[in-house]
């Protein structure tokens, strides 16, 4: 019996040019494969994420998202990259579509060279204390003198610890040797939490906040990620909680420089209410997608 093969695409997401940003493999026609086969394919590509989409009627598609450490309910660069690939292959033709994933429905919009996801807040816990921050800082080779603000847990389908530091400390940080939940005792969250977003607000301009970020997810076999849309979405909640981001506020994240894969993530928020009672209602994260490869992979 001949071996079966599946079509795939490789794209770079949150990249201003090819061979930058975060790599993504999108594998087609795998909807009936068992979980073990999906994980085996993911580990064969060995990118931070691989997706397995199934188009549905109209402007919808279902998507399973895997890291080499297992399946996750949501991720940013897989959402943008998968939608872009399906549209490029003619399986989606609308300017706005919906991704159905473990975290629910995620809106995706195409505009010029950008793809933008839209997600609702799900977790926001904090601020967390100095002792908690000290444990995390020690794990990445820093100390309390490097801290620059309150620590929050926040996410829109995948939750991260958002740890603010001074800008020069971002590059000095090292990859933690242990999963985040092994470093410090974390409060309970509704969504999975195993990532650390180390970030610095470098500047405030008329265009918004300029942010330098590094994201570590060793618990999911992603020691450091070059571009993390889910962390960028959760960061909006932390920035708003710190009083740094208001309604229609925008932010630009530079990530991946330390890995030689420079990435740019563009974020904005929508806020309901005024003053102390204001809450974030939607978070939007956008970036460019560039095609890199197309081929076939053997079914495990």
UniProtKB/TrEMBL annotation:
Pfam families: PhzC-PhzF (PF02567)
Superkingdom as given in the UniProt entry: Bacteria
Record InterPro entries: Phenazine_PhzF-like
GO cellular component, one term: cytoplasm
Single Gene Ontology MF annotation: isomerase activity
NCBIfam families in UniProt: PhzF_family (TIGR00654)
Name of the protein this chain belongs to: PhzF family phenazine biosynthesis protein
Species: Nocardioides pocheonensis
């Amino acid at each position: 019996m001949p071996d079966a093969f599946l079509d795939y695409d490789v794209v770079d997401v949150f990249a201003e040019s090819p061979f930058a940003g975060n790599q993504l493999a999108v594998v087609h026609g795998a909807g009936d494969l068992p979980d073990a086969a999906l994980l085996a394919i993911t580990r064969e590509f060995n990118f931070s994420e691989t997706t397995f989409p199934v188009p549905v009627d109209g402007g919808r598609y279902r998507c399973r998202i895997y890291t080499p450490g297992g399946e996750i309910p949501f991720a940013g660069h897989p959402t943008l990259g998968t939608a872009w690939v399906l549209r490029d292959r003619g399986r989606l033709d609308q300017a706005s579509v919906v991704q159905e994933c473990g975290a629910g429905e995620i809106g995706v919009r195409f505009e010029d060279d950008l793809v933008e996801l839209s997600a609702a807040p799900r977790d926001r816990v904090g601020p967390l204390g100095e002792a908690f921050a000290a444990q995390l800082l020690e794990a990445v080779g820093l100390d309390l003198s490097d801290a620059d603000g309150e620590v929050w847990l926040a996410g829109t389908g995948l939750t991260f610890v958002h740890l603010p530091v001074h800008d020069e400390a971002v590059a000095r940080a090292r990859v933690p040797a242990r999963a985040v939940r092994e470093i410090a005792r974390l409060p309970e969250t509704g969504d999975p939490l195993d990532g650390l977003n180390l970030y610095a607000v470098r500047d405030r301009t008329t265009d918004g906040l300029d942010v330098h970020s590094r994201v570590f997810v060793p618990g999911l076999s992603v020691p450091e990620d070059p571009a993390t849309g889910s962390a960028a979405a959760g960061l909006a909640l932390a920035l708003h909680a710190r009083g740094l981001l208001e309604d229609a506020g925008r932010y630009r994240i530079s990530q991946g420089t330390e890995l030689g894969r420079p990435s740019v993530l563009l974020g904005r928020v929508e806020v309901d209410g005024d003053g102390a009672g204001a809450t974030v209602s939607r978070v939007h994260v956008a970036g460019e997608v560039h095609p890199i490869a197309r081929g076939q992979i053997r079914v495990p």
